[in-house]
Amino acid sequence: MSILDTLTDSFKRFPGIGSRQARRFAYFLLNSPESFRNELAQQISGLSSEIKQCASCYRFFRKENGTTLCPTCIDPARDNTTLLVLEKDMDFENIHGMGAYSGRYFILGGSLPILSDDPARRIRIRQLLTRVESGASQGLKEIILAFGANAEGENTAQYVSKTLAPIAEKHTITITVLGKGLSTGTELEYSDSDTFVHALRNRR
Ligand SMILES: [Zn+2]
User: What's the CA-to-centroid distance between 75 and ligand 1, angstroms?
Assistant: First the structure.
């Protein structure tokens, strides 16, 4: 296999990228100035050296002074009684940027297609159980599930609720799901903070 083929295969792993588009990317790089390729290579390796994953919410954040927790998790002003469970980092960026939610977060790291086997490999369910257990001793009262409004999102919410049920019952924690009809397609997207606040108010 040539380097062009292996690079094409790497691009094919990107979300929504097919063979032809992957090949186009590879040729685009080949036709680009070497300086651009070097910069890109540096940026990619910078992801390992400059970014780390939070030990509590599992989102990615910029490494600073050796802390294992992200700035949001260590922020004492945030409310420990609610935990908003999101599918991915992009959802966090979107919702956190609105400033309409003041509790804690957890990034599940994926979703579950219907009939998928081995859910624990696809999503951070074990880590979520650990997070809920430690949250219980810090006043956690409600877990809010906010996934895409599609079959996969609903399946994920069902699995997560079912798995968390015993621990939630043990610590009298309520599990709620974000209001429907506001997120569209495969993405959890809220056009503005008003629609998000509405969905948050209409959780059930
Ligand atoms: Zn965090």
Answer: 9
Q: Which two tokens stand for residue 188?
A: 């959890």
16 and 43 housed in the same domain = yes
Q: Would residue 29 count as lying in a domain?
A: yes
203 C-alpha vs ligand 1 centroid, how far in Å?
23
Residue 182: which pLDDT band, with cuts at 50, 70 and 90? low
Band (pLDDT 50/70/90 cuts) for residue 186 is very low
Tell me how far the alpha carbon of residue 42 lies from the centroid of ligand 1, in angstroms.
Answer: 26
CATH number at residue 143: 3.40.1360.10
Q: How far is the centre of ligand 1, averaged over its atoms, from the C-alpha of 71 (Å)?
A: 7
Position 190 pLDDT exceeds 80: no
61 inside domain: no
Per the prediction, the chain carries an average pLDDT of 90
Same domain flag for 99 and 36: no
In-domain check, residue 63: no
pTM of the model: 0.86
Q: Is residue 60 part of a domain?
A: no
List the domain range (segments joined by +) for residue 46: 3-52
